[in-house]
Design brief:
about 325 residues; alpha/beta; Rossmann fold; 2 domains; five-stranded parallel β-sheet; about 40% helix; binds phosphoric acid mono(formamide)ester
Amino acid sequence: MNRFLDLADFERAQIKDLLGLAARLQQHPQPNALAGKVLGLLFLNPSLRTLASFQSAMMRLGGTSVVITPGQGTWQMETRLGAIMDGAAAEHVREAVPVLASYCDVMGIRMFAEGRDLAADLAETQFKMMADLCDKPLVNMESAASHPCQALADWHTMDELNVPERGKFVLTWVNHPRALPLAVPSSAVHMAAMRGMEVVVLRPEGFELPQQVMEKAERAARESGGSVRETTDRNEALAGAHVVYAKEWGSPRHYGDDEAEARLRQNLGDWCVTDSWFRTTDPNCRFMHCLPARRNVAVADEVLDGPRSVVVREAYNRMVVQMAVLYRLLRG
Ligand code: CP
């Protein structure tokens, strides 16, 4: 394994093998496995979990890490090819990425969607340009259309909690003050399909996931024996659910048009997960969210603070599965 960019780049058996390694490293720590190795982390967007969990994972394996957050103690960076750099950015990623890679044994890059051109974002145009600049093993720490480390942690969390492999996984759209990227919902729906689950995407009219995202999940479901569908019917979706996975995302219909998107969202205040959403779910139904989550906009206090919520465990498992990813990238 030389790159960890998307779960779809791997067979289901390879992902299960990686999850097995994560569980072994969790139970039997190897504090010197990556001694002397350096991880370079380039964050073009903010983070709490990804930053802290990668640094912690590397330290727990005996390695160290370098964090670059352009504009915060580091030169602001230009990402556009052909840009005339007479503005705030003093450095171009075309130099910055290979320079950072030259100091490191493995790199992670976070670069969210531009949010203007849906086709370009789904094609990962920007992240591919960055990946081409890096000659070291590389991890996607969230790109325009994929957040594979989150997906892997979510899979591990469901395994730990004995959520049935054939269980019902409901990815539900939830409210947010502005349009958010498609990376987490796309990865979550694909991951659950790859796990073999009955996947239902619950969302209001106008927030259907792009066809490309659904087709990718459907391909994974065909191979795993799972299924994938979309609905606007909340009662039908939630009945018997084993997992309610909440996520905010922008309307693909109005991609890059903030005003039209806001108009579509203005009457959707009831898309905030409350305890009442769990009346007909499986009694052990879990609530999942990748975090950060806006309390009482996306999810009510009563759910986040209640016994169904496993959001902190998901975040902890980011560190666990990333230890396995780093181990595989650096030790094979
Ligand atoms: N879930 C997640 O990636 O969190 P951060 O954005 O804080 O890294």
